[in-house]
């Protein structure tokens, strides 16, 4: 089968890496991919947001299955266009992808159906939002969470310790329009305290198959300090996410969410990413995403003991029911190496050395922002590489990931030194 992976990050390299191991995959394309995916796939130039051009490519090359990495093409209707042309594709439709594309849609779905999440109010008027912040700040000292409704490249969520910061966030989103029309509506919600975890499931309507839970490290610096990023590293599984919590999440969140979507006539297909806070009152949803997490995919897929192509095809064909997926009883840790300055401004074009030495240690090196320029491997993005170690214990996995990192050099490389340390200390 010919398979196409859409996207260019570490997540998409991990998807291509896993799909390339399938005996069912005869040819793999990555559009556009990166310097790492080029080792396992044929990279094809293209813009993931040019939905017709991507579908034209899949039609012309007789691609049997397309797997979409990033949310933007899903939210813009890539799946709808492929299905209109009779092409098989793994991912939710435009309507289903609203679970990530509109925070207000996701919140209403949860609150209307008793799915545990932080209480919230939704506003399309900044004056009313500001008055609401005034009233809640007088009742509680908890941080206030302000979210732009629509897509904001992961930057539209503000966790505000003070009333003034919350009002600034409203102004940034609604008056300064930092995220354009994505800020026409905002969601102001209660802060959820407790460790966070990511629980992703393969989904086909109301049938689903969970993946191992993982935990991301979103802040830029050690000890969870500094600005939020796309994710600086992660680990899987999550020791605090035991069998009881998993059963609660499945019964009170995953199943009712899919049922509620069904009631709205939405047949959700692809990955449902459930971002959770494990609060003292039980697990609650922080956010839903309509795709694989990044970097979570870089620890979850190496623990999958199965054929990703077979599973994605089953989902695309509506045949997930009854399929079982095995997971290795091992630990995985991924350390993200980023460009100096990320998530703020950073330079590109820094020469990267030591990848082969890192791989020789047994670590898996997933590329994110890399490209070949004048025959040399150079940086081309904020998050550059994800170095994953697998072990029988977290100590082994951490050691392997950091041994891999120690072999890799590029000017102003930045990475956290404490990924997964909390599970061994
Ligand atoms: N790592 C967070 C995300 O994928 O949204």
CATH architecture of the largest domain: 2-Layer Sandwich
**Helix share, percent:** 25-40%
- Number of separate domains: 4
CATH topology of the largest domain: D-amino Acid Aminotransferase, Chain A, domain 1
Structural class: alpha+beta
Roughly how many Å apart are the termini? Answer: 46 Å
Helix count, DSSP H or I runs of 4 or more residues? 13
Round the mean pLDDT to the nearest integer and report it.
96
Computed CA radius of gyration, to the nearest angstrom: 21 Å
Which compounds are bound in this model? glycine
Name the strands of the widest sheet in spatial order.
Answer: 3-2-1-4-5
Q: What percentage of amino acids are in beta strands?
A: 25-35%
Name the CATH homologous superfamily of the largest domain: ATP-grasp fold, B domain
Q: How can the largest sheet be summarized?
A: 5 strands, parallel
CATH top level of the largest domain is Alpha Beta
User: Shape from CA axes?
Assistant: globular
What is the strand tally?
24
Unreliably modeled segments: none
Characterization of the model:
With 425 residues, the protein is of the alpha+beta class. 30% of the residues lie in helices and 27% in strands. The strands form seven sheets. The protein has a five-stranded parallel beta sheet with strand order 3-2-1-4-5. Strand 10 and strand 11 form a beta hairpin. The termini are far apart. The structure holds glycine. The site of glycine has 6 residues, from loops.
